[in-house]
Amino acid sequence: MVDHGAPPVALVTGGGSGIGRATVARLRAAEWSVLLADLNPETGPRAADDLGAAFERVDVAEEAQVEAAVARCVAEYGRIDAVVNNAGVGGAFGALTDLAVEDWDYTFAVLVRGVFLGVKHGARAMRAAGAGGAIVNVASIAAYGGGAGPQAYSAAKAAVLNLTRVAAVELAEDRIRVNAVCPGVIATPLVGRDPARALDGVQPWPEVGRPEDVAEVIAFLCDDASRFVTGEEITVDGGLTAAGPRIHAAYGGDPRKRGLTGVNRGTTGEPPTIRSGR
Ligand SMILES: NC(=O)c1ccc[n+]([C@@H]2O[C@H](COP(=O)([O-])OP(=O)(O)OC[C@H]3O[C@@H](n4cnc5c(N)ncnc54)[C@H](O)[C@@H]3O)[C@@H](O)[C@H]2O)c1
Which stretches of sequence are listed as region Disordered (predicted)? Predict the structure, then answer.
């Protein structure tokens, strides 16, 4: 990002709630000028008012609306330094064998086409200005496997990760960085009921993730502090994916819980050593 002597400028989609709202707050605290784009006509303008951002009602699945939001940033602030493609919905749910095509298409339109349009129009404006920039796409740990979100959502978030990589490769010569964040379970209105109980014994970190935890990483990826980071995803999940499948515990329980240590010598015919106490 070139220093223009004026605050940097960001477009944040889905800024009316949850992770997007926290991201707008975090960027405003660092004195960014922010255009908050959201489809919700109530929460969007309210968040923008509260946080000192501008508001544009945008459906990220509609190309003309995304293009207009980027154009507004350039017209009002003279440039655009960052685009945060965060808007999202849970999308289609239920068995693949029963899913309606229009529900599948809606999910991909918001989660994948919406990110593509933010990349396309954000990068065009950044390239035209010749000063580089940063694009951050909000994916999910649901992109990593089949068990962390509804089917269409998981497939769409996996597409966002590879879209991030191909965009990073294409846009590097323009010094436009493209990265993704993969939140785990974050307490936002999207997740609904208090997730703490569902995470008990599943997520290693004791507290549930907050929108601010993700916003902090997004802000880092928007900032020149990450100037050599591109095509990367950063997981923000309290160790959820690091823990992987909890098969060890399922095999006869966790020896740590019984205060046991020792060594298992497998099928060598030699006995295990089992020690109690710490
Ligand atoms: N909360 C989590 O646990 C979690 C985990 C992984 C990934 N994510 C992702 O983080 C992003 C933000 O989610 P959140 O939890 O903050 O949700 P949220 O529901 O609190 O906020 C999402 C915002 O996106 C807006 N939005 C939805 N569709 C839109 C559209 N077509 N055009 C413009 N705006 C639209 C909504 O109006 C809302 O303000 C999403 O992409 C979501 O998939 C969330």
Answer: 253-278
